[in-house]
């Protein structure tokens, strides 16, 4: 979970809260995205997974862009997805968090 006591994380927490409202995320889903954010930043330092490293920008450009697919595709009618060329897990992981019923393959 994002440490809300760190000034930089207060704004990323607020950004996650906005995302949660926009996509009707549960607290559990919001917590999973928060943990994903932490892990992405941690592992990006070792493996250069993404050029976007600012937590607020990750939420805006990776998380929001990934979840925006749900505005165009009804994932409630789909049982499985394949994310080809997933890299750091976008859009597959955020979509899996939003739609836990999906069988998701990251390639």
Task: Write a structural description.
- With 107 residues, this protein is mainly alpha-helical.
- It contains 4 helices and 2 strands.
- It has helices at residues 7-22, 27-47, 55-67, 92-98; strands at residues 80-83, 103-106.
- A two-stranded parallel sheet has the order 1-2.
- The model is unreliable at 1-7 (pLDDT under 50).
Largest sheet: 2 strands, parallel
- Radius of gyration (Å): 13 Å
- The residue fraction in helices comes out at 40-55%
Give the overall silhouette. Answer: globular
The arrangement of helices and strands along the chain is: HHHEHE
Helical/strand content category: mainly alpha
Question: What attributes characterize this protein structure?
Answer:
two-stranded parallel sheet; disordered N terminus; single chain; mainly alpha; 107 residues
Short structural summary:
The protein is mainly alpha-helical and 107 residues long.
Draw up the topology in text.
Elements: H1 7-22, H2 27-47, H3 55-67, E1 80-83, H4 92-98, E2 103-106
Parallel strand pairs: 1-2
Helix pairs in contact: 1-2, 1-3
């Amino acid at each position: 979970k994002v440490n809300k006591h760190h000034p930089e994380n207060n704004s990323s927490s607020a950004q996650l809260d906005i995302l949660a409202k926009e996509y009707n995320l549960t607290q559990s889903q919001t917590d999973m995205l928060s943990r994903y954010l932490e892990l992405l930043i941690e592992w990006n330092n070792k493996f250069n997974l993404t050029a976007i490293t600012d937590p607020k920008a990750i939420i805006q450009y990776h998380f929001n862009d990934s979840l925006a697919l749900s505005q165009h595709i009804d994932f409630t009618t789909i049982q499985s997805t394949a994310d080809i060329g997933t890299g750091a897990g976008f859009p597959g992981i955020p979509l899996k968090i939003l739609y836990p019923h999906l069988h998701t393959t990251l390639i």
